Automatic annotation (TrEMBL):
<keyword id="KW-0802">TPR repeat</keyword>
<keyword id="KW-0808">Transferase</keyword>
<dbReference type="GO" id="GO:0008476">
    <property type="term" value="F:protein-tyrosine sulfotransferase activity"/>
</dbReference>
<dbReference type="InterPro" id="IPR026634">
    <property type="entry name" value="TPST-like"/>
</dbReference>
<dbReference type="Pfam" id="PF13469">
    <property type="entry name" value="Sulfotransfer_3"/>
</dbReference>
<protein>
    <submittedName>
        <fullName>Uncharacterized protein</fullName>
    </submittedName>
</protein>
<dbReference type="Pfam" id="PF13181">
    <property type="entry name" value="TPR_8"/>
</dbReference>
<dbReference type="InterPro" id="IPR027417">
    <property type="entry name" value="P-loop_NTPase"/>
</dbReference>
<dbReference type="InterPro" id="IPR019734">
    <property type="entry name" value="TPR_rpt"/>
</dbReference>
<dbReference type="InterPro" id="IPR011990">
    <property type="entry name" value="TPR-like_helical_dom_sf"/>
</dbReference>
<feature type="repeat" description="TPR">
    <location>
        <begin position="107"/>
        <end position="140"/>
    </location>
</feature>
């Protein structure tokens, strides 16, 4: 008996739960190709397809889901968010803007619009939509998100009425204040030169966030220990080889706020490169591993019939790049957790190049502590936790640089901003890209920037960020003591 569409979807879910990405993707593609009568279940297809990296199926399924109830706000929001998640920021903005005349006034639509426009560099339009969010008096979480975005887009002065508004909001919400409001107020106070009050607000927001989701630093340290001990050039060479030797991906590595978005902007200013941002596609391509420790790899590596699995992983990753970007051009992948997977990535994609950013740890620590990361990096909510995380990342950089020196170019942030001609040339050479004069004017490149550095990378290089931590030197002692003293 021919299985029904619902049966095929259920089988796809089971395959996903069993970490059989390719089988799940095939079933989802079949449902899409057959325009299966799934009704409202097309929403589930869209979510699952996006999770496994099948962008074409995800977007087609989401459009079908919207078409069933074209005036439903929840479906329109889901479609806009999916477009943004898949890197179609302009499409998300246009689709959401076109829906507004047919929609009830909803703060979530304006927050999505404001976020997209901020990422596209449309500052005034973004601010207008974010102010609309506040005018609609939504739930505290939306108010917090809007104020965070506003604070990132503008520079405050001491007499800015927004500061008093933020202070009044925090006073009114009391213990229920979302952490983001403290970060927004802290940014405003910092702009206004009120260093003590700003740091107090950052600390309050960080404590609030950490209480809800504390990091497991011991587990993180244990994972890094296993990776360093178990993944060496020699041990990885014992695995069956991969023939997926494409040089298409360029992996940009480094801590948040260390200059990774700047290097992505430089590379994306080259005609042969597309910006991919934090793709997280390698995890999707290799989900059959179940984990990324040496023991996880060993369980699969020597399982009967798995000889070609490393080539298949590589081909799936490259397929997912095609899905998202089309078949042409090099792609920058700056997914944060890749620092812990360099050995595996190098084995699966032996032709790939890595660019690793290194920045003064105190400057990076302060910048991380002052950032309210959308992805919720729970190690960033305490200066001592930041020090522990940085120490692990230092060990990973030393290890991978020793194992694969020919594949990794280490770029000191301070040298890059002070000697851009030299370092831009080195980055392009390392990636096998011919020099183009346009990369010198990278700040003029128009593209969506989805990280906290969206405004900085649209400015010419400057050295203002070097040594910025000293403004907060008295407050940085917990980091300096835990990390190992005063930076050089």
């Amino acid at each position: 008996m021919t299985p029904s569409a619902s049966d095929l979807l259920a089988e796809a879910v089971r395959a996903f739960q069993a970490r059989d990405r390719d089988y799940a993707a095939g079933l989802l593609a079949r449902l899409n190709a057959e325009d299966a009568p799934l009704g409202d279940d097309w929403g589930a297809v869209a979510r699952l397809a996006a999770t496994v990296g099948e962008v074409s199926v995800a977007l087609a399924a989401s459009r079908r889901h919207v078409a069933l109830k074209p005036y439903d706000v929840e479906r329109r929001l889901a479609y806009g968010a999916l477009l943004a998640e898949c890197g179609r920021i302009e499409g998300a903005e246009k689709a959401t803007r076109a829906f507004l005349p047919n929609a009830p006034r909803d703060a979530r639509l304006h927050l999505l619009l404001g976020t997209c426009q901020a990422q596209l560099g449309k500052t005034e339009a973004a601010l207008a939509d974010l102010r609309t969010v506040l005018d609609l008096d939504p739930a505290p979480a939306l108010i917090s998100a809007a104020w965070l975005a506003i604070a990132d887009l503008k520079r405050f002065t001491a007499d800015d009425p927004d500061i008093a508004t933020l202070q009044a909001l925090i006073l009114a919400t009391g213990d229920a204040t979302p952490s983001g409001l403290y970060y927004a107020l802290a940014k405003a106070l910092d702009d206004a030169g009120e260093v003590e009050a700003a740091f107090e607000a950052y600390e309050t927001g960080a404590r609030s966030a950490r209480a809800l989701n504390p990091p497991n630093l011991a587990a993180s340290r244990d994972f890094v220990d296993q990776v360093i001990a178990g993944f060496t050039r020699e041990s990885l060479a014992k695995l069956p080889p991969s023939t997926a030797d494409s040089d298409r991906p360029i992996f940009v590595l480094g801590l948040p706020r260390s200059g990774t978005t700047l290097v992505e902007q430089i590379l994306a200013s080259h005609s042969g490169v597309k910006d991919g941002a934090e793709l997280n596609l390698f995890r999707a391509a290799t989900m059959a591993l179940g984990g990324y420790t040496p023991s996880d790899v060993s369980r699969l590596a020597f399982f009967p019939g798995s000889e070609n699995v490393w080539t298949l992983f590589g081909r799936v990753y490259l397929h997912l790049l095609d899905e998202r970007f089309g078949p042409e051009g090099r792609i920058v992948d700056k997914t944060l957790n890749h620092t812990r997977m360099v050995g595996l990535i190098h084995h699966v994609l032996p032709g790939a190049k890595f660019v690793w950013l290194r920045r003064d740890p105190a400057d990076t620590a302060l910048s991380c502590f002052r950032s309210h990361f959308v992805s919720g990096l729970n190690w960033s909510w305490s200066l001592e936790d930041i020090a522990a995380h940085f120490a692990d990342e230092d060990r990973l950089h030393a290890h991978w640089s020793e194992q694969f020196p020919e594949a990794i170019l280490t770029v000191p942030y301070e040298d890059l901003v002070q000697d851009p001609e030299i370092w831009i040339a080195r980055i392009l050479e390392h990636c096998g890209l011919p020099f183009q004069s346009g990369v010198r004017d990278f700040h003029l490149t128009e593209r969506a920037v989805t990280t906290s550095s969206s405004s900085q990378v649209r400015q010419p290089l400057n050295v203002r960020g070097i040594g910025a931590w000293r403004r907060y030197e008295a407050h940085m002692r917990p980091f300096l003591d835990a990390y190992g003293g005063h930076p050089a």
